[in-house]
From TrEMBL:
EC number: 3.1.-.-
Protein name according to UniProt: HNH endonuclease signature motif containing protein
Organism for this UniProt entry: Phytobacter palmae
Transmembrane segments: none
InterPro entries with a match to the protein in the record: AP2/ERF_dom, AP2/ERF_dom_sf, DNA-bd_dom_sf, His-Me_finger_sf, HNH_nuc
Highest taxon of source: Bacteria
Keywords: DNA-binding, Endonuclease, Hydrolase, Nuclease, Transcription, Transcription regulation
Pfam families: HNH_3
Length: 175
């Protein structure tokens, strides 16, 4: 059912997506087995968040409740689907900003390129200098040894711009 839960027709029948705000709303009243209305049409549907900060919506089917990522639901409603093996990335890295202009389709590897905490430099124990390095297709490439942390960071950022072209521009700026 999980793959079926992401069916565009189902999602369009359950939710309305506001591309400007990035929010999802219930398209129809949501009722339980006891005929009680749990959510009215027009109410926000993406109020739940997971521990990582992603908005979630729930879809019932096969007697189960499936929690779906709101950014995936929004992208599917707006574009009709997500190709197999691809992911939806938040360009500005704000996990609850699901505006259509902030969502893009990327490979899993491209999605890894915009981790905020990633840095391709560290202190080189034997030389006492700063070493810069970058991973390209799973292979670590040595970029050199540098006298200062700033120089190692600059070398890493230059290589990141070249080898990871999907990296958001704000991550490529020197500190």
């Amino acid at each position: 059912m999980v793959n079926d839960a992401y069916a565009p027709e189902l999602l369009r029948s359950l939710f309305r997506y506001d591309e400007e705000t990035g929010r999802l709303f219930h398209a129809v009243d949501r009722t339980g087995a006891n005929k009680r209305i749990y959510a009215k049409a027009g109410n926000l549907a993406d109020t739940a968040r997971d521990s990582a900060g992603y908005r979630r919506v729930s879809v019932r089917g096969d007697g189960k409740c499936h929690m779906l990522y709101a950014h995936r639901v929004a992208f599917i409603i707006a574009n009709g689907g997500i190709p197999a093996g691809m992911q939806i990335d938040h360009i500005n890295a704000v996990r609850d900003d699901n505006r259509l202009i902030n969502l893009r389709i990327v490979t899993p590897q491209e999605n890894q390129h915009n981790y905020r905490k990633a840095k391709g430099y560290s202190r080189h124990a034997r030389s006492g200098k700063w070493e810069a390095y970058i991973r390209v297709d799973g292979v670590r490439h040595h970029l050199g040894l540098f006298a200062t942390e700033a120089a190692a960071r600059a070398a890493y950022l230059k290589a990141k711009a070249r080898y990871h072209p999907s990296t958001p521009a704000d991550l490529l700026q020197a500190a």
